[in-house]
Design a protein that fits this description.
The chain is of the alpha/beta class. It has 2 domains: 63 residues, no CATH class; 204 residues, 3-Layer(aba) Sandwich (Rossmann fold). It is built from 9 helices and 7 strands. Strands 1-3-4-2-5-6-7 form a 7-stranded mixed beta sheet, sandwiched between helices. Helix 1 packs antiparallel against helix 2 and helix 5 crosses helix 6. It binds guanosine-5'-triphosphate and magnesium ion (MG).
Length: 280
C-alpha cells in the first residue's frame, strides 16, 4: 500500500510531538527525584552506581521513541466504532473523509453518535473533540468515514471541526432540555442561539477558504416538539429559515435538510447516516 509524502510527514509530526511530550515528562520526573534526593542531602552523583545512568540513557531514549510511536492502523475497520483522538486519524495509512457533528451544547450530537455506533452515552457534556470511525451502510467493499464529535460549549471548537470536515451536520432543537414533559415548547432563546451559531459558521467558512463542503441541517428532538401543532409549526418555520440562511451566498456547495429527527432513535440515526453517505 503506497503512503503519500503528506501522510508520512503527518505521521512523523505526530510521532515527534508525542516523543517531546514523553521527554518532557521524563525530565519532570528526573527533577522530582532530584528534589527528593536534595531533601535528604543527596545528589545524583552521590547515589551508588549513578554512573550507570549514562549507559541507560540511550536505552531510555529508544524506549521513549518506541512508546511514542503513533499506532499505524492498516485499515479503518481496526478502530471502527471506538473513540479515538483526532490525531489518530493522521496515523491511518489512507486518508479518511471526516464528517463534523456541530451544534450547541445538549443538542444531541453525542446521542446520535452513540445511536449509530451502539456506544453507551456517558451522560456528560463533551469536553474535547474526538472521532469515531463508522462503516457506511450497503457498500461492498466496506467504506468508512470519521465522525467528529465537537464541543457544543465552545464555539471556536466548532469552527475548527468545520475546517477539517468535508461534510458537516449542524443539529438544531427546540430546547436544551431532554426530559419528557407534557408539552415542550419552542424556546426563542434556544433557536436564537442556533441562528447565531449558523451565522458564525457561515462567516468562518467564508474566511477559512477550505474546499467547499456540504451542510446537513438536522432538526432534532422531534419526540419533544411534535406534540402540539403550535410547536410543530414554529419548529418547521425556524428550520426552513435556517436552511434559507445557509443557502444564501452559496457558501456551502449543498444544504440538505433532515427534518423531524430524533437522535435517540436508531431508525432515525440510520436515516441520517444514509443522508451523510449520499452527500459524500
Ligand atoms: N428527548 C430527546 N432527548 C434527546 C434527543 N437527542 C438528545 N437528547 C438528550 O439531550 C441530552 C444532551 O444530548 P447530547 O447528545 O449529550 O448533547 P451534545 O450535543 O453532545 O452536547 P455537548 O456534548 O455539550 O456538545 C441527552 O440527555 C440526550 O439524551 C432527542 O432526540 N430527544
Ligand atoms: Mg456531546
Amino acid at each position: 500500500m503506497a503512503i503519500s509524502k503528506q501522510r508520512l510527514l503527518m505521521f512523523l509530526r505526530v510521532w515527534g510531538r508525542k516523543f517531546l511530550d514523553k521527554i518532557f515528562d521524563a525530565f519532570n520526573i528526573t527533577k522530582a527525584i532530584a528534589s527528593i534526593l536534595a531533601a535528604v542531602g543527596l545528589t545524583f552523583a552521590k547515589v551508588p552506581y549513578a554512573w550507570l545512568l549514562y549507559f541507560l540513557a540511550p536505552g531510555i531514549i529508544l524506549f521513549l521513541l518506541y512508546k511514542s510511536l503513533p499506532k499505524f492502523h492498516l485499515h479503518p475497520s481496526e478502530i471502527a466504532n471506538r473513540r479515538i483522538e483526532l490525531e489518530e486519524l493522521d496515523s491511518l495509512l489512507e486518508p479518511i473523509t471526516s464528517v463534523g457533528l456541530l451544534g450547541k451544547s445538549a443538542v444531541g450530537k453525542t446521542t446520535f453518535l452513540c445511536s449509530i455506533t451502539g456506544r453507551r452515552h456517558e451522560g456528560r457534556q463533551t469536553e474535547k473533540p474526538y472521532a469515531v470511525i463508522v462503516q457506511l451502510p450497503d457498500d461492498y467493499p466496506a467504506k468508512y468515514i470519521a465522525l467528529i464529535d465537537s464541543v457544543g460549549e465552545q464555539d471556536y471548537n466548532q469552527y475548527e471541526v468545520l475546517k477539517q470536515s468535508t461534510v458537516v451536520c449542524l443539529f438544531v432543537d427546540n430546547t436544551p432540555l431532554h426530559r419528557t414533559a407534557k408539552a415542550v415548547p419552542v424556546r426563542k432563546e434556544r433557536t436564537n442561539d442556533h441562528e447565531r451559531l449558523l451565522e458564525q459558521l457561515i462567516l468562518a467558512k467564508k474566511g477559512a477558504k477550505v474546499a467547499a463542503s456540504k451542510l446537513i441541517l438536522v432538526e432534532n428532538k422531534f419526540d419533544l416538539w411534535k406534540r402540539t401543532e403550535a410547536a410543530r409549526n414554529q419548529m418547521n418555520l425556524f428550520f426552513d429559515k435556517c436552511a434559507r440562511e445557509a443557502r444564501r451566498g452559496n457558501v456551502f456547495s449543498d444544504v440538505i435538510q433532515v427534518g423531524s429527527f430524533t437522535a435517540t432513535s436508531g431508525e432515525d440515526s440510520a436515516r441520517l447516516l444514509g443522508e451523510i453517505k449520499n452527500a459524500l
